[in-house]
Amino acid sequence: MGDINVELRRSGFAEWGFEYANDLVALLILVPLTFLGNVLTHVLVFRCGWTLHVSAGDYYYKQVRYRSKVAAKADIERQRELAAAIAPPAPVEPTRLPTRGGSLRRPW
């Protein structure tokens, strides 16, 4: 089984890398607008909630939302145990698909 990662984030905050904001105009206009949009989304849409992002390997990912940070922190261990209880999927044997013989190109 892979590693189990649990991350606590504010609900509604977008992850945006600032490496694309090389321009001074982008830094002066886009960054404050993005931050304001994130704060308004966090307060108005998600009501200042918090989100646990739980992932186990490449086969399990879940988001769980909570009303307060205290409730989210109290539930971290339970979510980690639930993710550990899920078995990874069995490996799938690749199958050969039937093909129609000849070229796949069609004459025009």
Lateral strand order in the biggest sheet: 1-2-3
Strand content: 15-25%
Quaternary status? single chain
Are there runs of 5+ residues with pLDDT below 50, and where?
Answer: none
**Mean pLDDT score:** 81
Number of domains: 1
The helix count comes to 3
- Between the first and last Cα atoms, what is the distance in angstroms? 52 Å
Report helical residue fraction.
25-40%
Number of strands: 3
Order of secondary-structure elements: EHEEHH
Which structural class do the helices and strands define?
alpha+beta
Query: What shape does the CA trace take?
Result: flat
CA-based gyration radius: 22 Å
Largest beta-sheet characterization: 3 strands, antiparallel
Folded structure, characterized:
- There is one protein chain.
- The protein has 108 residues and is of the alpha+beta class.
- The chain has one domain.
- The chain is 35% helix and 19% strand.
- It has 3 helices and 3 strands, in the order E-H-E-E-H-H.
- It has a 3-stranded antiparallel sheet.
- Strand 2 (50-56) and strand 3 form a beta hairpin.
- The chain is flat, with a radius of gyration of 22 Å.
- The chain starts with a strand and ends in a 23-residue tail after the last helix.
